[in-house]
Amino acid sequence: MSELAPAATAATPEQYVQDKAAGSGSSFYYAFLFLPPPRRAAITAFYAFCREVDDVVDETSDAGVAAAKLAWWRREVAEAYAGRPTHPVTRALMPLAPTFGIEAAHLNAVIEGCQTDLDQTRFLDYPGLQRYCHLVAGIVGEVAANIFGRTHDDTLRYAHRLGLAMQLTNIIRDVGDDARRGRIYLPVDELQRFDVKAHELLQREAPFGYSERFTALMRFQAERAHATFDEAMALLPEADRVAQKPGLMMANIYRTLLREIEAQGFRVLHQRTSLTPLKKLWIAARTHVRGR
After folding, report:
1. pTM, whole model, 2 decimals?
2. Which one, of 251, 264, 14, 254, lies nearest residue 148 by Cα?
3. Which of 42, 52, 68, 279 is a good FRET partner for 24, with 20 to 30 A between their CA atoms?
4. Mind listing the domains of the chain with CATH numbers?
5. Tens digit of pLDDT for each residue in 72-84?
């Protein structure tokens, strides 16, 4: 690997992606636990790829270096699908990709979404934000749905919509974290509608604080996220509901998180609300039993 490639120390590719997924603390990991081994191996490797690429943007302070690392990952994807993977993530993923329909275009879309994070720190309107969410979340949902197992094309529509709902929840949760990085994902025209200034979000301090304007803006964002969750659930064919249980687990975990943020009055400028691992596991287990 080149000096731009992330260091890898795990004994095997499979152990590397397992450590990457488990170490992220993500809600996704708890849903993976209920999958049979081949599907669990595939989603774990794919999720580790997404984490690697996302970490390039979040953990690399120099935009030029981050862009070079994303370029490295594009080359790695091309090499991997040509039969020459070098990174533990692609080495773990490639044997499983044909079985579960994971294509180079899927991986490159995720990279393109992360490139957007480097190139763009504002979104003028919701349609623009949706295009970004399609790359970083909708495509991820599509791949996950294929790995979980599906029989209907409508399941892909459900997966894209669910990915959007979860990404909207992430954006609400991460307003403060993103502001620290100089990024605002809330659409500019919606900031204007609620009379919230970009510099107020970026400062994250008095005299702005948690104003009524900010609360109204965030309530609007949360209502849209809830509506998108509802739309996703309505699209899921009953025949695929059992296979798609892991996605339902993630939906329930994210929706619980969203309600927690609402209950706290959208205190997202100075803190990052999260659920405990035990609560995530409990929600996943309850969903597994109830099937919804």
Report:
1. 0.90
2. 251
3. 68
4. 11-119 (1.10.600.10), 120-292 (1.10.600.10)
5. 999 999 999 999 9
